[in-house]
């Protein structure tokens, strides 16, 4: 399944939004508690915005289009959780207006997953 999603993930990486790029610049290169995040990561039948396999954490960014697909997002989150992942969802406005708060929640989740 992941192999079929790889071209989709590549396309999403090339077409990333400004908000995705803003968060990615702060997650990449192990900047959050040394955790390795991947951008547009195929996982469990879908492509997650950001994923950290080490602590089984998925971070999803939701823009305005997600207001009309609440049920689909809920089903996707449930599927990822059933696969053993913790899923954090943030609105794009959370990243633009409170990036430090978003990063702090991600940091806390990483630490909890590591048992600290």
TrEMBL record:
- Limits of the DUF559 domain: 4-109
Q: Tell me where the signal peptide lies.
A: none
TM segment ranges:
none
What superkingdom does the record give? Answer: Bacteria
- What SUPFAM superfamilies does the record point to? Restriction endonuclease-like
List where this protein forms a coiled coil.
none
Q: Gene3D superfamilies annotated for this entry? A: VSR Endonuclease
State the InterPro entries in the record.
DUF559, Endonuclease_DUF559_bact, Restrct_endonuc-II-like
Q: Which PANTHER family match?
A: BLL0828 PROTEIN
Please report the name of this protein according to its UniProt entry.
DUF559 domain-containing protein
